[in-house]
Amino acid sequence: MTVPNLVGAGLIVIGAGIGLGKIGGSAMEGIARQPEATGKIQTAMIIIAALLEGLAFGALFLGK
Amino acid sequence: MDQLLNDFSPGLFIIQTFLLLGLIFLMVKFAWKPIMSAIESREEGIKDALASAEEAKKEMQNITADSEKLLKEARAEREGMLKEAKDIKESMIAEAKEQAEAEGSKMIEKAKLTIEAEKKAALEDIKKQVATLSVAVAEKMLKEELADDKKQQKYIEDSLKDIQLN
Amino acid sequence: MRPAFTKYILVVLSVLATQFNFAKEKEEKHADDGGIVDSQEEISEYILHHIKDAHDFHLFSYTNGDGERKHIGFPLPVIVYTSEGLRAFMSSEFHHDDSGHHIVEADGVQLVKYHEKIYELNAGAHAVKFDHETHKPTNAASVLDLSITKSVFGILLVGVLMLLAFGGLAKQYKNDQIPTGFARFLEPLVIYVRDEIARPNIGEKKYKRFTGYLLTVFFFIWILNLFGLTPLGFNVTGQIAVTFCLALFTFLITQFSGTKDYWKHIFWMPGVHPVMKVILAPIEVLGMFTKPFALMVRLFANISAGHIVVMSLIAITFTLKASMGIVGSSLISIVLSFFITLIEVLVAFLQAYIFTMLSALFIGLAVEEHEH
């Protein structure tokens, strides 16, 4: 692994981390506001998180 | 990416493809189809059972309503009958009363008439008796009075006087 | 070194009861490379070796009284398609060599195993040599490896288990409408996949056609993920070939069940400006491929990363031995790896769920009929 590779990987992880944080935070807010919709919010959260994760992993492996 | 391609084993991929195809085929044939149809038929059964229970409940309600209606009708009929009977009784009593009254008044009338007749008869009788008595008394008195001529004269005169006045 | 190691083994044995997985994987560590793993480089190499496929099934190894390494496990059949045709033999022929030195003669072809890959040596070569730039062998050719490897063994095992378990469940319905025993635990899972994954994502009308595939894939991935957490050390769903195959199935099913609307939305998006249509078409076509690619990479990366993390935490016992002592480093290692293993149990389910869920979502998007 070269230095640019590592920097790139770090950037990807930072980006993915911010994204996941926002998804999780919004989901928590939503659940707090509407506890009866917890199941639906969780499903949507997991799907979006999975899509983001796929993107991040894809980028990581393309750079590896 | 290089690492990813390097790690990729074509042999494993081929085997996995065939095994997964076989697994899907076998699972669908021997597991999922019978499981799904069993679960679905069971769900259908539960739905049917619930529906029929609901229907039975409705029917039960209908029956209850019907019997209530019948009961009401019967009660109304009974009440009507009772009322009728009461009316009849009352009318009968009234009629009897009226009849009795009429009879009574008739009898009273009759009695009155009889009494009147009796009274008349009695009065007639008394009149007769009085007449006889007075005749007898008058006879006696006349006999007594008219024993002397003077007196006889006087009496005739008085009587004549009276007649004249009348 | 040796007395210290014996002492370490005693510590490991004393915690065997509290963390079976931990101790088992540790012992396995000694198995695959044959020797004892102690240094940081050896640990990295061992972990990378573990997440690869293997041609024999090792449970653990130990050093006996005479200082001799003993390997406990069993060999698996090697089936390779070489330039001379198909060759088959047991993996024990390699004598646990993984460095490309032990040559197996199989009817006129010389085969060696190097990092769990089998190469056919050119005439006159004695050991496989690699070009440092391209990492391609200079004096040997790759062969098509159709062996029953550890992963294939795992797939077969899971397939048989699934057939037995769910076939048993199916058979129970013949006698009784309500299953008993273990099947009682399986039935809600089947209903869960149908009602929470297939039905809402594909739609009430068409979900029935795809439940078979989704159920198979869900349980296949989940059980294999869980197997990966046992001391058996499977890493099947962490093999890129396996996840590629799974993603390819989803891709093909999605494309072949796509409605007219689906293709229209890809090549000629309705309701936008014609210039936008031209711009959107290549993006949508790219999206067709990135979706299953993400499916493939996600599962592979999550499971591989999980294995690497668990094994690295177990390896803390070695790496921090010098600074914290055996007891301290073991304690940290046990606590950390125990909790990470718990998380991995969750991840095992989550990844199976996400794979099935996204597959259902993609299929649902393809079979959806729009009303314009």
TrEMBL record, chain A:
Q: How does it sit in the membrane?
A: Multi-pass membrane protein
| InterPro entries (UniProt xref) | ATP_synth_csu_bac/chlpt, ATP_synth_F0_csu, ATP_synth_F0_csu_DDCD_BS, ATP_synth_F0_csu_sf, ATPase_proteolipid_c-like_dom, F/V-ATP_Csub_sf
- CDD domains reported for this sequence: ATP-synt_Fo_c
Localization (cell): Cell inner membrane; Membrane
What are the record keywords, sorted?
A: ATP synthesis, Cell inner membrane, Cell membrane, CF(0), Hydrogen ion transport, Ion transport, Lipid-binding, Membrane, Transmembrane, Transmembrane helix, Transport
User: What Gene Ontology molecular function terms does this protein carry?
Assistant: lipid binding; proton-transporting ATP synthase activity, rotational mechanism
Question: TM segments?
Answer: 6-23, 44-63
Record bears the keyword Transport: yes
Q: What are the residue boundaries of the V-ATPase proteolipid subunit C-like domain, all occurrences included?
A: 8-59
Residues flagged as site, Reversibly protonated during proton transport: E53
Which GO cellular component terms are attached?
plasma membrane; proton-transporting ATP synthase complex; proton-transporting two-sector ATPase complex, proton-transporting domain
Q: What is its main location?
A: membrane
Known role = F(1)F(0) ATP synthase produces ATP from ADP in the presence of a proton or sodium gradient. F-type ATPases consist of two structural domains, F(1) containing the extramembraneous catalytic core and F(0) containing the membrane proton channel, linked together by a central stalk and a peripheral stalk. During catalysis, ATP synthesis in the catalytic domain of F(1) is coupled via a rotary mechanism of the central stalk subunits to proton translocation. Key component of the F(0) channel; it plays a direct role in translocation across the membrane. A homomeric c-ring of between 10-14 subunits forms the central stalk rotor element with the F(1) delta and epsilon subunits.
Protein family: Belongs to the ATPase C chain family.
Name of this chain's protein: ATP synthase subunit c
Instruction: State the encoding gene.
Output: atpE
TrEMBL record, chain B:
Gene that codes for this? atpF
Note the InterPro entries from the entry: ATP_synth_B-like_membr_sf, ATP_synth_b/b'su_bac/chlpt, ATP_synth_F0_bsu_bac, ATP_synthase_B_chain
Q: How does it assemble?
A: F-type ATPases have 2 components, F(1) - the catalytic core - and F(0) - the membrane proton channel. F(1) has five subunits: alpha(3), beta(3), gamma(1), delta(1), epsilon(1). F(0) has three main subunits: a(1), b(2) and c(10-14). The alpha and beta chains form an alternating ring which encloses part of the gamma chain. F(1) is attached to F(0) by a central stalk formed by the gamma and epsilon chains, while a peripheral stalk is formed by the delta and b chains. F-type ATPases have 2 components, F(1) - the catalytic core - and F(0) - the membrane proton channel. F(1) has five subunits: alpha(3), beta(3), gamma(1), delta(1), epsilon(1). F(0) has four main subunits: a(1), b(2) and c(10-14). The alpha and beta chains form an alternating ring which encloses part of the gamma chain. F(1) is attached to F(0) by a central stalk formed by the gamma and epsilon chains, while a peripheral stalk is formed by the delta and b chains.
Pfam families of this UniProt entry? Answer: ATP-synt_B
The record's GO molecular-function terms, alphabetically, read: proton-transporting ATP synthase activity, rotational mechanism; proton-transporting ATPase activity, rotational mechanism
Keyword vocabulary terms for this entry: ATP synthesis, Cell membrane, CF(0), Coiled coil, Hydrogen ion transport, Ion transport, Membrane, Transmembrane, Transmembrane helix, Transport
As for family, the record states: Belongs to the ATPase B chain family.
Sections of the chain in a coiled coil: 39-102
Q: What cellular-component terms does GO give this entry?
A: endomembrane system; plasma membrane; proton-transporting ATP synthase complex
Membrane topology per record: Single-pass membrane protein
Q: Where in the cell is it found?
A: Cell membrane; Endomembrane system
The membrane spanning regions, by residue number, are 12-32
Role this protein plays: F(1)F(0) ATP synthase produces ATP from ADP in the presence of a proton or sodium gradient. F-type ATPases consist of two structural domains, F(1) containing the extramembraneous catalytic core and F(0) containing the membrane proton channel, linked together by a central stalk and a peripheral stalk. During catalysis, ATP synthesis in the catalytic domain of F(1) is coupled via a rotary mechanism of the central stalk subunits to proton translocation. Component of the F(0) channel, it forms part of the peripheral stalk, linking F(1) to F(0). The b'-subunit is a diverged and duplicated form of b found in plants and photosynthetic bacteria.
Q: What is this protein called?
A: ATP synthase subunit b
